[in-house]
Amino acid sequence: MVGLNSKSMAEHRNPALKSGVSYSFSLITISRSLQAKGVTLVKKRFLKDSIKVPTRILYHIVIVALSAAIALSLPFTASFVARNFLVYRSLIIEDEKFFLISVEIVVAMLLILFFNYIGRSWRDRKFSNMARSAGIAYFFTTRGSFAQRRIKKLKEEQGFARDVMIIGSTGLSTFVDPKGDLHNVIQNCREAKIMLLNPYSEGARIRASSILDPDFTVEKFGEQAMKSIDFLKGLKAVQKKIKLKLYGAAPFLKMSTLGDYLWMKHYHTGIDAQAMPEYVFEHNQNPSSLYTYFYHYFLIRWNNPDIPEYDFDTDELVYRDMNGNEVRREFFTKLEPQ
Fold this sequence. Notes:
The protein has helices at residues 2-13, 15-94, 96-133, 145-159, 172-176, 183-188, 202-210, 218-237, 290-302; strands at 136-140, 163-167, 191-197, 242-247, 253-258, 261-266, 278-282, 309-311, 316-320, 326-331. By secondary structure, the chain is an alpha+beta fold. The two termini are 60 Å apart. The chain contains nine helices and ten strands. β9 and β10 (326-331) form a beta hairpin. It is elongated and about 100 Å long.
């Protein structure tokens, strides 16, 4: 009782101690939640790999059973054809002209369908080879519930315990929102390099004004960006290896590199990025793959000395030269409205 009273009195006398204790408890809670999510993802991947083998075995069993059923039905089919062949032959001889015209029409239709299928298959194969040469692995045009679940599942598999590189605007709907595609990825990756739009830059004003939604203002844009920064700051506090840079130009590409896969969208004027189609490029040894070009595009922007790094400890913008040496620091403050 005395110990509890002394502890409460100490916290009452020293409010910083109380806030420090609550902050430590919050960090412990975040750390435990991250560990639980990591264990869950590992279990899901193990379960998926365990299901693959029985599914393939079942597939082969079904094929063998189907082929056996067809083989066993052949004698009955042959006897049926033999019993009815004479009847069909007599009908054909009675009206031979009608039979020949019918056969000609049927054969012509089959030939048309066959050559159309061959031509379409050749064109599809040509486009498939072009897409494979460009490194395209997936392409999503819609964002329905089924497509959204598949996209999120693919990103979680590709980014688990891998290096992640992200370019976005505010990041709120991408990795802060629990329903976001990269919410689990950013918490279970090995290292994350993130570039977001500076909410107090001219580029943020341009992007906010280009969105047709009247409720979306520059102030709301800044609120979303600050929520993303606070989220990343919490991850950084639990020893996650995360670096954040804030660029000032209007956003052009929404891009996330998850290991050997690169997801890319285009920021179109007046259209929400969530409604835009998404391209997925895979890293391979083909020199014509676009994965390499977009990967280098990220590195060029990341190493640009005009784009500062955000210091989570001091809330300052740190400018560095091409060699990574610190040049100067600036306070992360809001610009005056123009």
